[in-house]
Automatic annotation (TrEMBL):
Highest taxon of the lineage: Bacteria
Protein name as catalogued: Uncharacterized protein
UniProt xrefs under InterPro entries: 6-hairpin_glycosidase_sf, Terpenoid_cyclase/PrenylTrfase
GO biological process, one term: carbohydrate metabolic process
Organism: Jiangella mangrovi
């Protein structure tokens, strides 16, 4: 808007509903204060006409009364500010879509275990395109995050701090669940190879983040694309967690030492308020992007280190950092809903404009893990799940900005990448599992069966799980440039889920760990 406009009179949406493309339930729209206005008139229209109007004395409008009057599809909202009868604010219009929710029907279970075996077989395969010298015998995705499933052509860009951890979790969980399967030994071998990659490819020791793994590599070198020569801080904590898992597996102290080093860096980089910066210069630790909601990742690593009495470093400092991080998390995104600042391939965005839910799912599982002593933690976890289900779950075929017509229910990634993905359906599946274990509410079980089925429905004849969503109109994928690391998360989710379902049918069985890692 032109600089001559008095910005104090401009209606500007803010808060969790400010940029949402679609809603299952009625939103509460909020906007910045307009001192000149004493009341606001809000009109809500469907495709043809205004169906509801309301008058509000403050900068918020609850659309609960309007919602039953609206059909599914596009919704337009006009907000105007008045002082008496005189319009004194620059009015604001926005459009979003009303979309369907869950129909409450639990489908018959798909063959989840068979799908896992096929998917692991696909992930363990060697490269089908040219192998560069810098790949040095590592698994095919060590230097590549995405590949064309049809041709085997790989992109030479990778996010190792994110995806290598995913492979390690998937392969070790698979080998544990099916130790006698012919693929189990190769799965364990490749998990250790990804662990070796993370040990051997590290930032220089004289940097402030020295010893940590890079979060982006391009064509065999550190850095690249959106991050340039900077790194995403909280991804290192994800690496620290798998280092602890590899230490427990092998007894190799190098893994424990690396996890402890990462924990020390997390303590060093924590902000005074308990949060962590999103993206930093690894030489100096100076942030290039400040805000991220992903506090649960370093919080979880510090918690795990605190449970190891022999971990190198200062336990008291880690415990204090974890406590500060938990307090910030509960007072920050858990309370205000600003879940953003997650992905290495996204530049800085204005507040509220690119909400996502990866760490929301992890926070649900943290709240219910037994490590978080908050009296209303079950209710908080349920509220966070409701946010995910409203903003990111595609429950049924819908008219909206979502590109493919996909098997449902499936889960979208973020506002800036509004595609249904197996990785996010997997994260939500495990959150549903955790909520069911904590509450016994079978409505979570109904949703989880449907979500697991949707992941399996996207599998192709090679065994790969669709990152970008099978389109049910074409019977195939619109985009075949899939992300094997995202497949790996979905595999781990299906492993946790199928084990949980088996345990439900056996009264003597344990219902699994309190925090399933993906």
């Amino acid at each position: 808007m032109s600089a001559w406009v008095d910005q104090s009179r401009v209606i500007r949406f803010e808060g969790p509903a400010a940029f949402s493309p679609r809603f299952v339930g009625p939103p509460v729209l909020r906007w910045a204060p307009v001192p000149a206005a004493t009341r606001f008139e809000v009109a809500v229209a469907d495709r043809e006409r205004v169906v509801w109007t309301g008058s509000f004395p403050t900068e918020a409008a609850d659309l609960a009364e309007a919602w039953p009057l609206l059909p599914l599809g596009p919704v337009d909202v006009l907000v105007r500010g008045f002082d008496g009868e005189r319009e004194v604010a620059v009015r604001k219009h926005r459009q979003f879509w009303k979309v369907p929710g869950f129909d409450g029907v639990r489908p018959a279970p798909a063959d989840w275990t068979g799908a896992v075996h096929r998917a692991v077989g696909y992930l363990l395969q060697p490269a089908r395109d040219e192998v560069d010298g810098y790949e040095d015998g590592y698994p095919r995705s060590a230097w590549s995050s995405f590949e064309d499933t049809v041709t085997g052509l790989r992109g030479r860009l990778a996010f190792p701090a994110q995806h290598h951890a995913s492979y390690i979790h998937a392969y070790l969980t698979y080998a544990d669940r099916f130790p006698d399967h012919p693929q189990a030994a190769e799965a364990e071998r490749q998990a250790l190879e990804y662990g070796r990659w993370l040990l051997e490819h590290r930032l220089p020791d004289d940097w402030r983040l020295g010893g940590l793994s890079p979060s982006t590599v391009l064509e065999g070198g550190f850095g690249g694309w959106v991050e340039g020569d900077h790194v995403t801080v909280f991804r290192a904590a994800r690496v620290g967690e798998v280092m602890l898992r590899l230490f427990a597996r092998t007894g190799d102290s190098r893994y424990l030492d690396r996890a402890a080093r990462i924990g020390d860096v997390m303590v060093d980089l924590q902000n005074p308020d308990g949060s962590w910066p999103f993206r930093v210069d690894p030489r100096t630790g100076e942030p290039s992007i400040g805000y991220t909601s992903a506090v649960v990742t370093p919080l979880w690593l510090l918690t795990l280190l605190g449970e190891l009495p022999d971990a190198p470093g200062t336990a008291q400092q880690r415990a204090a950092a974890a406590a500060k991080g938990e307090a910030w998390l509960l007072a920050g995104p858990v309370a205000d809903g600003r879940w953003e600042g997650m992905y290495e391939d996204i530049p800085e965005t204005p507040p509220w404009s690119n909400l996502q839910h990866w760490d929301t799912n992890e926070t649900i599982r943290y709240l219910l893990s037994g490590r978080c002593d908050v009296p209303d933690r079950v209710a908080l976890a349920a509220r966070l799940n409701a946010y995910i289900e409203d903003q990111f779950v595609v429950w049924a075929p819908e008219e909206s900005p979502v590109p493919p017509h996909c098997p449902t229910p499936t889960v979208l990634e973020q506002y800036r990448c509004y595609w249904p993905m197996e990785v996010h359906t997997g994260h939500w599946l495990v959150s549903l599992l955790t909520l069911h274990r904590s509450t016994g509410d079978d409505r979570y079980l109904d949703r989880a069966v449907a979500a697991a089925n949707a992941i399996v429905a996207g599998q192709d004849e090679q065994g790969s799980l669709s990152t970008w969503g099978l389109d049910t109109r074409f019977g195939t994928r619109l985009v075949t440039m899939d992300w094997p690391g995202c497949n790996a998360v979905a595999v781990t989710a299906l492993l946790h889920w199928s084990a949980y379902v088996d345990a439900l049918s056996d009264p003597a069985a344990e219902l699994g760990p309190a925090f399933e890692s993906l």
